[in-house]
TrEMBL record:
SUPFAM superfamilies per record: Acyl-CoA N-acyltransferases (Nat)
Tagged with keyword Transferase: yes
Protein name: GNAT family N-acetyltransferase
Native organism: Pontixanthobacter luteolus
Superkingdom of origin: Bacteria
UniProt keywords, alphabetically: Transferase
Length: 181
């Protein structure tokens, strides 16, 4: 995955990037733990299992994201709205053998319905399309998350199947094929 990986690292450098006035992404940091706890803890809507997460689950998630940076040189970002941590979103390796990439977003519930996740994932999709040779992009959603299904469909994804063991949970898989000249 060396050449595709290098292009993904260029598309998603580990630095702060302004998407628009008031909205930026930056690499997650260990000090984001408190913001992630505020965002995710105790709310079953914010976990894949639909069981409330506690600090240990969230610590594991943050460590997983930080290790992705070490392994691949890119990964999901902290999403900052007016300098406030409101979630994480971006791209990560989906299947190393197939050299594929997946989009993801965890956005604060107070931002749901405001288009923030769509905006950040549209930005990420454009970077993958414009700066890499990826032939497709993947996404996964919980089977019961109709809001996420509509969002990925609006972004151009089509449902491709059901994964019984996506990080230990059932997930719908989605794919967006990228047309190349």
């Amino acid at each position: 995955m060396e050449e595709p990986l290098a292009k993904l690292q260029q598309a998603f450098p580990l630095e702060r990037i302004q998407i628009r006035d008031g909205l930026c992404v930056r690499p997650l940091e260990d000090q984001d733990f408190a913001g992630m706890v505020e965002l995710l803890a105790g709310d079953p809507d914010m976990s894949w299992s639909r069981k409330p997460w506690g600090p240990s689950n969230i610590r594991h998630l943050l460590d997983h994201r930080l290790s992705h940076y070490s392994l691949y040189g890119f990964g999901p970002y902290a999403v900052m709205l007016d300098d406030r941590f409101v979630g994480m979103a971006g791209a990560q390796v989906f299947d190393r053998e197939r050299q594929s990439v997946e989009l993801l977003a965890y956005i604060s519930k107070d931002q749901w319905g405001q288009g923030l996740a769509s905006e950040v994932l549209s930005w990420a999709t454009a970077r993958i399309t414009d700066m890499t040779d990826q032939s497709s992009i993947f996404a996964t959603t919980r089977p019961d998350n109709a809001r996420a299904h509509r969002m990925v469909e609006r972004l151009g994804f089509r449902q491709t199947g059901l994964d019984q063991e996506h990080y230990g949970h059932e997930a719908l898989t989605w794919e967006m094929e990228i047309e190349r000249d």
